[in-house]
Amino acid sequence: MNWENLLFFLLGSAVTIGTAIAIEAMRLPRLEIRVAPIQTIQFASAVQAKLGEFLHLDVFNRSDAPAWMLPGTANRCRARIRLLMPDGATVFEMEGRWSSAPEPAFTPIYDNELRQIAAFEDRALTAMQHIDITPNEHQTLNALVRFDRESACYGWSNSSYPNWKVDAFRLDIGEYIMDVIVLYHGREARRRFKVTNDGSQLETAPLPMDDFC
């Protein structure tokens, strides 16, 4: 092989490899996090509350792949949600709960007088939350909830079961910052929102990511 042939071979190989990398890059999922409309749910038989107003987040898998190319699924997506005060002090942090995931199952434990003293999580249902998001589809992520028109709101995750109102996830009237991270494919999607609880409703507004930490 002379130098000219070697040069053409190397250039051809570089073009082939570059094209393959570019195609794979276009196939990669790209997640976007958006606030969904408040969802109001009435609980007919629940003892914890009769009404819940839920703030959800939609996580959308946006594909940039052309029509002829099979875009990629975002596999095993896992989310973390952190609420902070305006000065950056952490209020609480929780594992994200996907709305389509099964509710945690608990087995009650009773004492000798048949009083319930504990409930244990069914690990098969509530082990680390992961979910797949197919191209150009979305999955809904739970965030916050207000029960029965109360002034306080609560973070909503698997740890909220079975009592729903977890003091460690409580948000009183005020302004907060909500950081959301979704991990997938060794990558992450991040979004920051301003959250205002005025005692009767929740308002959100996107914030710049410059100070995200």
Structure, briefly:
Helix content is 14%, strand content 45%. It has helices at residues 3-27, 123-126; strands at residues 30-35, 39-42, 51-62, 74-84, 90-95, 106-110, 116-121, 131-133, 138-147, 153-155, 170-171, 174-184, 187-197, 202-207.
Provide the succession of SSEs.
HEEEEEEEHEEEEEEE
Q: Give the domain tally.
A: 1
By CATH, the architecture is named Sandwich
| Percentage of β-strand residues | over 45%
Parts with pLDDT < 50 across at least 5 consecutive residues: 18-23
Largest sheet: 6 strands, antiparallel
Can you count the beta strands? 14
CATH class: Mainly Beta
Over the alpha carbons, how many angstroms does the gyration radius reach?
23 Å
CATH topology grouping: Immunoglobulin-like
What does this structure look like?
- This protein has a single domain, classed as Immunoglobulin-like (Sandwich), CATH 2.60.40.10.
- The chain is 14% helix and 45% strand.
- The protein has helices at 3-27, 123-126; strands spanning 30-35, 39-42, 51-62, 74-84, 90-95, 106-110, 116-121, 131-133, 138-147, 153-155, 170-171, 174-184, 187-197, 202-207.
- Strands 1, 2, 3, 9, 10 and 11 form a six-stranded antiparallel β-sheet that branches.
- A hairpin with a 4-residue loop joins β13 and β14 (202-207).
- The longest helix is centred in the N-terminal third of the chain and has 25 residues, at 3-27.
